[in-house]
Protein 1
Amino acid sequence: MPLTFADTGEEYVVKRISGRPEVKKHLENLGFVIGSGVSVINAIGGNVIVKVKESRVAISQEMARKILV
C-alpha cells in the first residue's frame, strides 16, 4: 500500500519505490531504501512527516504515494 494510507505511528518496511529514475534516486538519497523501516509521524496540509533512519523528513503526498510499504 502507498505510504499515504499508512497509520500514524506504525512501523512499516519499504517494499517498493515507483516513479521516474530521478524520483527514485531522490527518495533513496533521503533514506527511503527497499527494506528500510519507515513510520508516518504526521500528515499536515498535503505534506507527510516521516521518520526514516532515525531522522524526520517532510515529503509531499505525491512523493509519499510513490513509496509502497
Note: Residues 26 and 42 are 21 Å apart (CA to CA).
Protein 2
Amino acid sequence: MFPLAYPVPIAALPSEHEVDVQDLMRQFARLLSRESILVSGVTQDREYKGALKPKIILRDINSSHTYALSQDLGPGSVACNLDTSELALACGAIEKSAQSGAGVIFISKFSKQEASGYGLCDAFRSAMLARIPVVTAVSPHYKDEWRQFSGALSEDISPTIPALKEWWLRAQSHLNSQQMNEANPY
C-alpha cells in the first residue's frame, strides 16, 4: 500500500450474500444521488439471457452501460472466462470519475483478481489518491489481502442502509475537517 497524507474512508461490506450486497450498494447510491451527491462507480450483476450459466457484468451506477466480464468460450470449455479487457475498461471508467471529482465511488468488490493485485485495484488506488470515499464489498475469502491492501483506510460496515448512512456522516465529517486543516495549516 502507499502512504496518504490524510486517510480516506472506505466502507467495506461483507459479501457472503453477493447479490444482496450489490443491491444494497445500488440502493445507497440512489439515496446519495437524491441528496445531490455525485456518485460514480460500478456494481456487479448477473444476466441470464438464455444462457445455461449466468453472465457476470459490471453495471455503471450512473448509466445503463455494462461491462461483460464473462466471455463465451464455447461449449465444454473449462478455462477461466473472465474478460480482462472489459474489466480494464470498467477500471478506467472509475479512475476517470475519481479524477473528475466524484463525491463517492462504488466499486463492486475486492475479490480474487484484486487480491492478486489486478482487477479493480487501480480504481481503488485512484479513489484513495483523490481522497474520495469508497463503498465496496469484500469477499470473505480475501479478508487478509484486503486488510493488507487497504490498511487503516477501511472500516467494516454492517450491510444495511442505516449503517451506511452512519458511515457516510462520519466520512463527510472527517473529510470536512481535513479540508479545514488544509485551509488553515496553523
Note: The helical segments are 18-34, 84-99, 112-115, 121-129, 143-150, 161-183.
